[in-house]
Amino acid sequence: MEPGSDDFLPPPECPVFEPSWAEFRDPLGYIAKIRPIAEKSGICKIRPPADWQPPFAVEVDNFRFTPRIQRLNELEAQTRVKLNYLDQIAKFWEIQGSSLKIPNVERRILDLYSLSKQCNTRPFDNEEKDKEYKPHSIPLRQSVQPSKFNSYGRRAKRLQPDPEPTEEDIEKNPELKKLQIYGAGPKMMGLGLMAKDKTLRKKDKEGPECPPTVVVKEESGGDMKVESASPKTFIESKEELSHSPEPCTKMTMRLRRNHSNAQFIESYVCRMCSRGDEDDKLLLCDGCDDNYHIFCLLPPLPEIPKGVWRCPKCVMAECKRPPEAFGFEQATREYTLQSFGEMADSFKADYFNMPVHMVPTELVEKEFWRLVNSIEEDVTVEYGADIHSKEFGSGFPVCDSKRHLTPEEEEYATSGWNLNVMPVLEQSVLCHINADISGMKVPWLYVGMVFSAFCWHIEDHWSYSINYLHWGEPKTWYGVPSLAAEHLEEVMKKLTPELFDSQPDLLHQLVTLMNPNTLMSHGVPVVRTNQCAGEFVITFPRAYHSGFNQGYNFAEAVNFCTADWLPAGRQCIEHYRRLRRYCVFSHEELICKMAACPEKLDLNLAAAVHKEMFIMVQEERRLRKALLEKGITEAEREAFELLPDDERQCIKCKTTCFLSALACYDCPDGLVCLSHINDLCKCSSSRQYLRYRYTLDELPAMLHKLKVRAESFDTWANKVRVALEVEDGRKRSLEELRALESEARERRFPNSELLQRLKSCLSEAEACVSQALGLVSGQEAGPHRVAGPQMTLAELQAFLDQMNNLPCAMHQIGDVKGILEQVEAYQAEAREALASLPSSPGLLQSLLERGRQLGVEVPEAQQLQRQVEQARWLDEVKRTLAPSARRGTLAVMRGLLVAGASVAPSSAVDKARAELQELLTIAERWEEKAHLCLEARQKHPPATLEAIIHEAENIPVHLPNIQALKEALAKARAWIADVDEIQNGDHYPCLDDLEGLVAVGRDLPVGLEELRQLELQVLTAHSWREKASKTFLKKNSCYTLLEVLCPCADAGSDSTKRSRWMEKELGLYKSDTELLGLSAQDLRDPGSVIVAFKEGEQKEKEGILQLRRTNSAKPSPLASSTTASSATSICVCGQVPAGVGALQCDLCQDWFHGRCVSVPRLLSSPRPSPTSPPLLAWWEWDTKFLCPLCMRSRRPRLETILALLVALQRLPVRLPEGEALQCLTERAISWQGRARQALASEDVTALLGRLAELRQRLQAEPRPEEPPTYPSAPASDPLREGSGKDMPKVQGLLENGDSVTSPEKVAPGEGSDLELLSSLLPQLTGPMLELPEATRAPLEELMLEGDLLEVTLDENHSIWQLLQAGQPPDLERIRTLLELEKAERHGSRARGRALERRRRRKVDRGGEGDDPVREELEPKRVRSSGPEAEEAQEAQEAQEEEELEEEAVAEGPAQPLPSTGSPSTQGSQDGLEPAPEASSGPSAPFSILTPQLHVPCPQQPPQQQS
């Protein structure tokens, strides 16, 4: 294939190896294993196990480096030759003042070098090669700095298209014109030769730049010497010319005038014709100052040229100058890993116009070789190569004191595949070199980008190398095996001799590539591979390799040497000696250092060192003998290893000396190796002396130690072979074999097959001894031996044979033979016993026990075991089914059946299993029947259960369900007995006892007739309790029925009473009988309840009197000086009531906010009627107020209570609430009798008559339409107060006696009625009656006791009116009540509007319900059909009221809490129906509400909300 072809053919792939974990643990051993295969290719690739992933240990933030610049087309050898050739041509024309433009042929630049090859013309051959070229040392490889005045810029300009000269240019330029005629220079059409622009020169006032390359140097002898100009003289010449005021053509004459030397003047003669005439046509060379006639030149010049002119001699000298050594220059920018990666990825993405990870490796490879072979495209990349890991840190974790390593990092830091560890492994030769050789013992780092390349080279000292790619894109490798190394060198020298003429060790500089296809076409075997991240590439000794990077990546490489490298290393030193190349280390010193300590060497290494040492000693003997023959007899010992390398290098071949060297006393600065003793100096042999490290007697001694070390393995191996194969007929003891194995370990013999056989034999023998000891100890332990797997008889025989076949003597063989004899004797005895069946179970068991003690499984022992198990199972079945035995469970029966399936079959076993199966089937059937009785919804009567239990008792099996059924039946009988005992007792049973019996009876799985009767009684009792609760308890009351019926024993403590009420409101207090001091057992005794009730009455009365005295002493909230103190009243809201709106309870005398409690209505009549009270009869106004702490219930009428008592008498159950209700009724009837007696007294009767008279007088007064305003009557005229002349009458006044008025009941004119009452307040005077103290005191005491009763009695209201008339009207309370009533009516309207909106929404949704307004007006008992419906209705009303209150908050003022005001009269109702709420309808007429037992009274009090 022609180099530079567009189609690059990839070479074949190199071998790829994937070691297992076992192979991977020994790096150098594995490399030695694959060497026979991989060495044939020169390079190979190794993929570690997938789990081997070392962490990247470089400190990325601190890693900074300066890369090298690589111009791709200068890397390839043939391309570089072409470029150098073009540089010479370009230089030729530049010297003569013209520029070179290369023509294009078929759109490609003409290859002038190939053209010259075809024409066999080489115009600028070097006559002399660089004889004094000094090869570069190893530390400076790849670091040759190019000339400051390199040809890069010239090459770039040359490739730019320039305008070709026209005919006019040729006519103006006489030189171009003559070139068309004469034969000097190329005459091809299109060659871009053009003279420099003369007009520009003329305009340049400083004169032209004439880059001279040859200067004239005057020496002492007067000779003129032409020398190559240095850059300094170049600059000086430029400066001199730039300051010249005259053009260059006048310079020759100026020089003549300035030099008066005769010799110098004589030199102004033409070099061609040797004449000095015609000065005006004599031309002076700007390089050497030689003179030429313009007509003597070939071709002749028509006139003196302007500008710089060189003679043909200077032109040839400049063009024949050898090129400078090629090398890479360092970049000027310093990079971090991140910045370099960004640059590299950006370059690749822009170059290929696609994401970097999508560029195929094949495309990159073809493009790389295209660019390398191109002289047209100049692509430059950067490569961070040979970065010292000592300075920047290795990519592998390293064990040092700089930072703490994690356990995972420590594992990789000590791994043999860590490139910091591999060179110094025990099997490696380099571990014996103390110095840290950078690049060999210490890894180098490589940061690559796309196209960055490493050129063809072999490793220093032809060592191995290993490269690991930490991360990034692949690295493409090419390799040539060591057998073809010289062939490769010959091909490259043949194809590019020009490069090797100037640089003989060019391939050692890592700066030259050659296309693998070119090498392959000349017979060089080349392989390739793509190294991906996490993979190793290994190069073998003297294997040439090169490659390039596919993109941004990070790699690390190091050298290592194994024992097989030593011959190659010796050959490399000879090769270096011929090339005069410096060594990295002394090979002789390395061999001697290893030979000095042979016991530390690996055995294979010791053998290799011995071989090398022998060759080296023989060569040293020969060289020293030649030295003696020359006559040099003086010698002195020298420790060469202590000298620096540059002080012990041969001045001829640059080899580092160690064993010996020749020096001279007169020339102390240099020495030579013994191979170049004639090149030291010209001094006499007597002045020369030998410097040696070891004498010739010491070297054989070292060689002998190596031999002993190398041959020790053979001696040991012979002894092991004799022992293992028993060649002498004597078996070695175990101790002898262990000694041989210990010797191999101590002397570090290689892990050979013989050593493995020895170890295997030892481990097998030790296992046999351990097993034999276990057998013997097991027999000695007898029945106490530890249970474990036993050896079979066949295994015992095989074990004995194994012990006999081992090549070692063991005294345990006799013990094993004895055990085998015992087993055989037992086997015969067992066979005899089995043949005489049926034998006694005791004999079989004893034989079985003896067999277990042997520790060996005998086949007959298993048969004995089956016979013993069969006998045991039959005995167990017999015991289980025996009549006298304890009944077994179903689980036992099933277990026997399962066990019977595994015993040896026989007729007795089959019969027993059949009986067991039949019995189990019957038992399971009865158990299922009992289970159905226990779980069935329909309970069976006791007689049925007794029959089932009786039949199941005949089954000889324990049945859990039958037993549970029996227990349930016993509990049912006990329950029936308890019911009979309670029902036949002296008293009715308590409700709690009946409830407990009902709960127990329901849980029993037995049908009980008595249970239905008890459930009916309990249901009746609960129904009576619910009716009583509805009668007494307010809606959502915090009290229980029993608490309401019992007297309040702690009424005297306001704080206790208030805190207990608050606890009840919050649901924290739940005790029913705590106030009476009754326990649960006391409630069962009627006598205890009655006694406690009587005691509670007295405590309640005493307590309320104490509370009245305490509260009366508190300051009134209406006073302006009221301040909060410990004696101040506290409302139920927790605040101090103050100012207008505060009300005082008529019973406890405590103060409350009017908005926080339910307050009474002033007037009770809903409409004007003959029986309506006169408007100015203020003593009949309902101003009585009882706080919620004093009025705990609805206070039903006595007739309702009597109806409840009648229903209670029909109950066959005792309730604590019933007995408390009887006590309350007796207390109310007793008080009623005393009140009637007081009202019937003569004094009180007279007072009542006077009040009736005053009322009739007020009622008879005319009622004008507009009531006039009257002045208040004096308080001292009671008759005037009561006269009807001045009392207006109001028609159409509608007053509602309910505390909470529904919006439907409020007439449109009610607001004016309240204003009318307010206007009448100044006219109210009193007292209306004069009550003597003897009359007032008994009435007040009766009033107090009546207010404590939770019963409504008409006598209570009559006494209250009488006491009211006997005192002045309470105007402050009346005003407060009026204001509260106004606020309440406003809130009622807001709730009405909210109710109307809700009704409309319901109609809009399509709901067809009853009118909510009409529903509110209907009595609750009309809308309810039973207790359940009433409860549901109350819950619904409560929810609706909450909704209305929430809506009313936004539309009107706050509303008062639910009413707990003064007692009121109830409408007529049946005895068991609770009194309806006041809001359910208007108050009934007084004639209807008058009770039968009531004494004559003007009217009944208005009803207050409960």
Keywords:
elongated, alpha+beta, 35 strands, 1506 residues, four-stranded antiparallel β-sheet, disordered C terminus, 46% helix, nine-stranded mixed β-sheet
Describe the fold and architecture.
There is one protein chain. This protein has 1506 residues and is of the alpha+beta class. Strand 34 (1142-1144) and strand 35 form a beta hairpin. Helix 3 (77-95) packs antiparallel against helix 12 (312-319) and helix 21 packs across helix 22 (603-630). The radius of gyration is 66 Å and the shape is elongated. Mean pLDDT is 74; it is low at 1-5, 122-164, 175-264, 1264-1310, 1407-1429 and 1444-1506.
Q: What is the gist of this entry?
A:
With 1506 residues, the chain is an alpha+beta fold. The protein is built from 50 helices and 35 strands.
Overall 3D geometry? elongated
Average pLDDT, rounded to a whole number, is: 74
What is the number of strand segments? 35
Strand order of the largest sheet: 1-2-21-18-23-16-15-4-13
Number of helices: 50
Radius of gyration from CA coordinates: 66 Å
Instruction: Outline the biggest β-sheet.
Output: 9 strands, mixed
Helix content: 40-55%
- Percent strand equals 5-15%
Protein structure class: alpha+beta
Terminal-residue CA separation: 120 Å
